[in-house]
Amino acid sequence: MYVRLLIAFFIGIALSIFLNLPPLPFLVGTIALFAIAAAFEHFASLRQKNKFELGVSLVLFIALVGAGISITSLHKAIEYQNHFSRKYLEGSQLVVRITEPPSIRPNSVKLIAQVEKLKVAENQYSVSGKLMVYLPIDSKATALKYGDALWLTSMIKETEMPANPHEFNYRQYISFKNIYHQTYAYPQQWKLVDTGEGNPLLQLVFSLRDKCQSVFSYWLNTSSSALVSSLVIGNRDMLNDDMVKAYAATGTIHILSVSGLHVGIVYGIFHWIFGFLGNTVKAKRLRLALILLLLWIYAGLSGLSPSALRATVMFSFVLIGRNLERPVNTFNSLAASAFFLLVIDPYLIMDIGFQLSYLAVAGILLLYPKVEKLLYFEWKPVKWVWQSIVLSITATVATLPLTIYYFHQIPLLSIPANLIVVPASFVLLILGVVLLVFSPIYILSFYVAIMINYLVRAMNWCIAWFSQQPDAVYGGIHYSFGQVLALFAAIAFGVAFLYFWRPKWLLLSLSCACVLLLLLIEADLRQLRQQQLTVYAMEKRTAIDFAIGKTNWLLTDQSIDPNDNEAQRHLMPNIWYMDLEAPYETCRDEKCRYIRKPFFRKNEYLQFGNLRMVVLSEWKKKISPAHPLKVEYLVLTNNVSVKIKDLSRLYDFKMLIIDRSNTKNRADKWEEECKGLKLKCHNNWTAGAFIADLNPSIKLQ
From 450's CA, which of 11, 52, 381, 533 has a CA 20 to 30 Å away? Predict the structure, then answer.
C-alpha cells in the first residue's frame, strides 16, 4: 500500500521540480480530493465502498500527486516574497547565521548560512534564504561553529551554470538544497557578530561530533583519523582526493558514508548493551526508547546525511512496529521512511545518495532471497563468503543504471574488494566506538588506536592495489536519461519474472532490452557522423578539441592527465558523451605527441582539414600585410599582450574566442573592444565553452 502511495507522491514531486508548477491551485485541489475521499469513506455503505473502490483509489492517487506538487512548490525558498535576492543590491550588507558545521578545505572554509537581515543603504529588512559562503582559511575562519552569526559586506552572486558541455551542473545540484547564491568574503569583508544561537539540540549534537573528531585526531594518525571519522561520524572533510578516488574505483565508497550498514551495527551494539533491562513489556519499551534516541543522536553526529536519515528512519519504523507486536512488511517500512523524509524535504528525491541508498536496499530485499538460494553451503565460512558475494551483486545490479548515469563507470572489482572492506569496516566501526567510549582510559585507548592504525593501513593498501589493476574500472560510459530508463525497466521486469515466472514479464524485460539496444545504436550512428570543434572553459588552461566521428585531436598548452580533477570535471564529460577515443594530443610541451595529418600546426597557425585557425599565446608586432590572412577562428590565450584593432589588421577572422587561460578582467576588456569594432566575440568567462559544428566546412585531406 505504502509503495503505491509513494509512487503517486514521487510523480507529484517530479512534476513540480521539472515543470515549476504553482502551489496554490494544486493545494486547493488536493485538499478538496482528500475531503471527498474522507466523506465517502465515512458516509458510504460497505456495498458502495466495494463498488467504487477503484474510483476512490484513483481519487487518492491524484490527490497524492497534487500533494507532491504542492509540498515541493511550497518548499522552493527563492519564490518567497522575503527572499533576500528580491531586495539585494550591489553594496548591500548581510547578517547570516551558520546552519551546518563548517567544512574546512585545503584553501578555504565553506559555510552554509541562513540570511537573517539585509541592509540596503539606510534601510534594514528581515529576510530569508540560504547562502553559501567561502572564507579564506585562517584561525578566525576555522574557529567558526554552528549557530554563529556573521556580518558580510562581500559581493553576492548567483552560482554559475556549467561552463562546458555535459559538465556536472553544480548550480542545479545546490538549488535542490535551496541554495541559489554564493559569496567569497575576504577577512576584511566579514566579522563575527553573535555566537551560540542555533537550535540547542543540534548545537549539542554538533558539539559531540567535534569532540569525537578531537578524540580521533588525538589518538590516530592522519589517514586513520580521516577514514575512521568518515566511517563513524560521517565527516569526510579530512579525506584526500586520492583516497576517495581509490574507494570509488573499487566500488567500496559506500563505507565512507554513514548508511544502513553502520546504523545496523550501532543498533546491534546498543541492543546488546541494554540487554540487561530484561524482556518485560516495560523493559522492551524502555530499551526501544533508549535505542531510538541514541540512533537519532548517531544520525545527528553523521551530519544528518540522506543515507543516515534513510537508515535511521527505516530502523525506527521497523522497531516501533515490532514493539507493537504487529507484522512488519519491510517494503512498507522502506516506503514509509521515504515518504516521511520527502514530506520534510521533497528535494531529497534528487539527492544521489538518497536514490542509490533506497535502490540498493530495495534490490537487496527483492533479489537476495532468490539468488542466495541458488547455492547451498554447510560450512559457515564458505556460506558467509557466498552470502557476501550475493549481497554485493544484488546491490550492484539494483544501482547499476544510476551508477552509469551519474559516475560513467562500472567498478569491475567491487565484489572481491567488498569481501575485504565490509568486514574490515565492521571491525573499524566497533573499534572506533570503543575508542570514543574509553578515550579517558589511556592504556586501553593506546592499544585500540594501534589496532585501528594497522587495520586502516592494511585496508587502504588493499584498496590501492585493487584500484591500480588495469581492468579495475570500466569507464567512459555515457547513457542518456532515456537509455537509463530502458535499462532500469529491463532490470525491473527481469526481477518481476524471477518472482512470478510469468512469460509476460520476461517479454517486457526483453522488449526494454531491445529498446535500449536501439537507443545505443542510434547514439552510435550519431556519434559516427559528428564533427565538432570545442574550445573548453578551463581556468588557467587552454584546451581545444577537434572531433571527427569518434576520433579527436586535443590541442593544449600543457599535457592533460584524463584522471586529473580539472580534466574529470571540465573535459572528460564531453569526451564520454561523444564516445571519443583517447585523443591524439599536441601541445607546446616537447613530451606531447605532434600529429600531422589531418592536423597541421606551425607556431600560431593551425589547420585541421580545410579549417584554418590562429591560436595566439605570444604577440610580436608585425608589418600589416596588403590583405589580412583569412581564418575561421582566432583564439586568444595566456594573457597575450595585444590589442584587438592590431589583430584585425593582420587577420580576417569570423569569430574571436577568448579562453579562460586569460584573466577575467583582460577577457572582459577584449570583449568591450570587439563590441566597439563590431567584431564577433565569444568570451569563455561569460558564455562558457565555444562549440561549433564543423559539418559545413571541414574536409579531411
Answer: 381
Quick one: DSSP state of residue 375? S
Give SS3 for 631: strand
Given pLDDT bands bounded at 50, 70 and 90, which one contains residue 135? very high
Give the number of residues written for the chain: 701
For residue range 329-353, list pLDDT tens digits in order.
Answer: 778 778 888 888 899 889 988 888 8
- What average pLDDT does this structure show over 482-498? 92
**pLDDT tens figures, 526-557:** 988 888 999 999 988 899 998 888 888 888 88
CA distance 565 to 202: 34
Half-sphere exposure of 76 (CA within 13 A, CB side): 18
3-state secondary structure of 486: helix
Q: How many other CB atoms are there within 10 angstroms of residue 518's CB atom?
A: 12
User: Considering the entire predicted model, what is its pTM?
Assistant: 0.83
CA atoms within 13 A on the CB side of 668: 4
Residue 53 pLDDT greater than 50, yes or no? yes
If you search the block for the grid coordinates 584553501, which residue do you land on? 107
How many CB atoms sit inside 10 A of residue 481's CB? 8
φ, ψ for residue 130 (rounded to 5)? -95, 155
Alpha-carbon dihedral sign for residues 647, 648, 649, 654: positive
**Spatial separation of the C-alpha atoms in residues 212 and 618, rounded to whole Å:** 55
Pairing type for strands 651-658 and 629-636 reads: parallel
Cell of 138: 585562517
Average pLDDT (303-320) is 77
Report the SS3 class of residue 26.
helix
Q: How far is CA 216 from the centre of its chain?
A: 27
532 - beta bridge partners?
Answer: 547, 693
Average pLDDT value over all residues in the chain: 85
Distance (Å, rounded) from C-alpha 379 to C-alpha 386? 11
Q: Give the C-alpha separation, 684 to 164, whole Å.
A: 9
Task: Classify residue 188 by burial, with Cβ atoms within 10 Å: 0-12, 13-18, 19+.
Answer: exposed
- pLDDT for 210-231, tens place per residue? 888 899 999 999 889 988 988 8
Q: Is the dihedral of CA 122, 123, 126, 132 positive or negative?
A: negative
Residue 133 CB contacts under 8 Å (≥ 6 apart), including other chains? 96, 110, 111, 112, 113, 150, 152, 182, 183, 185, 190
